[in-house]
Amino acid sequence: MIFFIIFFVYFRGGFVSTQDTMVALQAMSQYSLKVSGSDNDLDIDVLSRRSGLENSVFSLNEGNKLLLQRRKLTVLPDDLNVTVTGQGCFMVQTVLRYNVHQSPEVEAFSLEVSQVN
Questions:
Q1: Which residue in 7, 18, 57, 94 is a FRET match for 79, CA 20 to 30 A apart?
Q2: Which CATH class is domain 39-117?
Q3: Contacts (Cβ under 8 Å, ≥6 apart) of 41
């Protein structure tokens, strides 16, 4: 469902058709029901290796679960190590903007995920 939502988003925002919009809203509603069933109590530690070992800690709990928390990277490219402890659900979003006529022909980022019990 999430792939559908990401793939069919219209380039100006929204979705291409009413049916796409309804399917996306239904998918997001189902996802919200599954995610909101348990309490959030997470500590998210972000370690930046190239920008002077800057460290950011985000706490996510029931009181701030709808609050946008962000961190701007000061040095690019960068290697980030994200460690999450606790239980719950969260989302990470990355945005990379270029102030040039054409984007470079290199990968913007790579992602490796491992779970430690």
A1: 7
A2: mainly beta
A3: 60, 61, 62, 86, 87, 88
